Amino acid sequence: MHKLPLRIYYEDTDAQGIVYHSKYLNFFERARAECLREIGYRQEELLKEDIAFVVKKQEIEYFFPAKLDDEIEIRTILSSSKNVSFTFTQSVNLKSDEKHILCKGQVYCGCISLKKNAPAKIPEELRVKMKSLVISND
User: Fold this and answer.
1) Nearest Cα to 133, choosing from 80, 90, 82, 93?
2) What residues form DSSP beta bridges with 89?
3) pLDDT tens, the chain, 138 aa long
4) What distance in Å separates the CA atoms of residue 77 and residue 88, rounded to the nearest whole number?
């Protein structure tokens, strides 16, 4: 499981100091990028090879709000990895109470050829590294 600590800043909140709902998608994106970076995913290198990762679908469920100045932790698990697609399970937890889940979600991603605008196989070396990260969320 990858963990990314973050602090909630004013820019993340609405007028009441509550994190605006769409900001959680940004937090999830940062955490996925860092998780993949740790296994050698370098976006600029894949782009040179005409390969990009895209989000196909997202599901998110909110339980409690994060608030201004909270310290949170984004937890990321790669829950499946196939030849052209992969799925992340993610949650936002309060850092002070790791069992306190603020929201959780599933993010379904795919690999595409930018020139063809069509599915493409994940490069073999990266696919093997991704498969080694898969943790069942059952």
Assistant:
1) 80
2) 77, 106
3) 899 999 999 999 999 999 999 999 999 999 999 998 888 888 888 888 899 999 999 999 999 999 999 999 999 999 999 999 999 999 999 988 878 899 999 999 999 999 999 999 998 888 888 888 887 654
4) 6
Spatial separation of the C-alpha atoms in residues 126 and 130, rounded to whole Å: 6
- The tokens 């020139």 sit on which residue? 115
Q: Name the catalytic one among 14, 50, 69, 70.
A: 14
CA distance 81 to 127: 8
Cα separations in angstroms, 54 against 81, 84, 104: 14, 11, 20
Q: φ, ψ for residue 14 (rounded to 5)? A: -90, -170
Amino acid identity at 114: L
Catalytic-residue membership of 97: no
